[in-house]
Specification:
By secondary structure, this protein is α+β, with helices and mostly antiparallel strands. The protein has two domains: 30 residues, no CATH class; 83 residues, Immunoglobulin-like, CATH 2.60.40.1120. 26% of the residues lie in helices and 35% in strands. The chain has two helices and nine strands. The strands form two sheets. Strands 2, 3, 5, 6 and 7 form a five-stranded antiparallel β-sheet that branches. Strands 1, 4, 8 and 9 form a four-stranded mixed β-sheet that branches. β5 and β6 form a beta hairpin. The longest helix has 20 residues. The radius of gyration is 23 Å and the shape is elongated. About 13% of the residues have low confidence.
């Protein structure tokens, strides 16, 4: 009989702690961050780690296969705002025949702004 009482008390305590952890405020914060669009930013660098102007950066939504492009600024920077949350994206760049490896922005990455540097391989 004592053992059943102890088990019941432990289960009850676990339930109370679970309710505290799943408060409406915490759930709302998690839900809000999952539905907000995110931004991918970064730089394209050459094999000497110098910024590359006018490189073409491609970002592909792996769910819809839609591709967006961006031509880098003078400082090698690029920016893709308004990306869907909870979706994987593949990103790579090309410039004058050189290309970068493809990198992935995971749907599990919940940062509002992710930063990925892409480095061109020498031709």
């Amino acid at each position: 009989m004592k053992r059943r009482t102890i088990i019941t008390a432990v289960l009850l305590a676990c339930g109370v702690f679970a309710c505290i952890g799943a408060s409406p405020a915490v759930a709302e914060m998690q839900r809000g961050s999952q539905n907000e669009p995110r931004t991918l930013v970064g730089h394209v660098l050459n094999d000497r780690s110098e910024p590359v102007q006018k490189a073409i950066v491609y970002v592909k939504n792996t769910k819809t296969l839609a591709i967006k492009t961006y031509i880098t600024e003078a400082d090698g920077s690029y920016r893709f705002p308004g990306l869907a949350p909870n979706v994987d994206y593949e990103v790579y760049a090309e410039h004058e025949g050189a290309h970068t490896d493809t990198k992935t922005l995971s749907g599990f990455d919940n940062r509002k702004e992710a930063n990925i540097t892409l480095k061109l391989h020498a031709k």
